[in-house]
């Protein structure tokens, strides 16, 4: 607790040193990020029990590999306190479908799948603090998620997740706090819940702002 208080105090004391605005209306930024523990992972979307009507025993899925969440994003500052943006990304998952015969847990692998969850969303980004080298912000994202799977091995009629996991669905992200440090080439770290994960980190590049036309004054 003392360490957290010390770090928070140092950040507060440093704010006056970073008082020159980093972002202004018209600024644009492109970024690449990687996150872990997306909303799909948290609700165990790839692992569940199901008992098809045609079977007298339970079956279940179990994820064997998860890639994490890769995203490309673009943002545009409406003002030095508010930005809007677009993002698109995907997550890759491998999972097996097992028949859970007696004794419980002694599952027989019925099929292996590879799946992807692709998201495209609009984001609204309020900027809490806008300094010369550091930016504190949050954002809310709303978009669509597309799920696709492919049977890698097993019987052709092996049930996957399409009966329980909609192919097209709404996806969201709420990030209450994010830290952005740098100027033209920057790094950032975000904490939230949703399609970008509980923790999301990446790099961003500030695009050149369009120059305003100069109007000559009449002599």
Give a written overview of the molecule.
It is built from two helices and nine strands; from the N terminus they run H-E-H-E-E-E-E-E-E-E-E. The chain is elongated and about 60 Å long. With 219 residues, the protein is mainly beta. 8% of the residues lie in helices and 60% in strands. A hairpin with a 2-residue loop joins strand 3 and strand 4. 25% of the residues are buried.
Which key terms come to mind for this protein?
9 strands; 8-stranded antiparallel barrel; 219 residues; elongated; mainly beta; disordered N terminus; single chain; Porin
What's this entry about, in short?
8% of the residues lie in helices and 60% in strands. The protein contains 2 helices and 9 strands, in the order H-E-H-E-E-E-E-E-E-E-E. The N terminus is likely disordered.
Compile the SSE list and pairings:
Layout: H1 2-14, E1 28-36, H2 39-42, E2 49-50, E3 59-79, E4 82-101, E5 106-130, E6 134-154, E7 168-182, E8 185-194, E9 199-207
Antiparallel strand pairs: 1-3, 1-9, 2-3, 3-4, 4-5, 5-6, 6-7, 7-8, 8-9
- How many beta strands in the DSSP annotation? 9
CATH overall fold name: Porin
Q: Give a quick account of the main beta sheet: strands, pairing sense, barrel closure.
A: 8 strands, antiparallel, barrel
Helix share of residues? under 10%
Second rung of CATH, namely the architecture: Beta Barrel
Oligomer: single chain
């Amino acid at each position: 607790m003392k360490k957290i208080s010390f770090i928070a105090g140092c950040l507060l004391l440093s704010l006056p040193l970073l008082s020159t605005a980093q972002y202004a209306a018209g600024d644009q930024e492109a970024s690449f990020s990687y996150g872990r523990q997306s909303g799909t992972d948290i609700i165990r979307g790839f692992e569940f029990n199901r008992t098809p009507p045609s079977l007298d025993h339970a079956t279940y899925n179990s994820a064997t590999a998860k890639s994490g969440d890769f995203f490309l994003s673009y943002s545009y500052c409406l003002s030095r306190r508010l930005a809007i943006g677009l993002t698109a990304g995907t997550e890759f998952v491998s999972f097996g479908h097992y028949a859970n015969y007696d004794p419980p847990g002694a599952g027989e692998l019925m099929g292996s799948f590879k799946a992807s969850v692709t998201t495209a969303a609009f984001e609204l980004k309020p900027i809490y603090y806008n300094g010369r080298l550091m930016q504190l912000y949050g954002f809310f994202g709303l978009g669509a998620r597309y799920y696709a799977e492919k049977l890698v091995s097993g019987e052709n009629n092996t049930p996957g997740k399409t009966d329980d996991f909609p192919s097209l669905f709404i996806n969201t992200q709420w990030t209450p706090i994010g830290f952005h440090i740098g100027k033209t080439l920057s790094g950032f770290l975000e904490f939230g819940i949703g399609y970008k994960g509980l923790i999301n980190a990446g790099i961003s590049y500030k695009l050149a702002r369009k120059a305003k036309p100069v109007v000559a004054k009449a002599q």
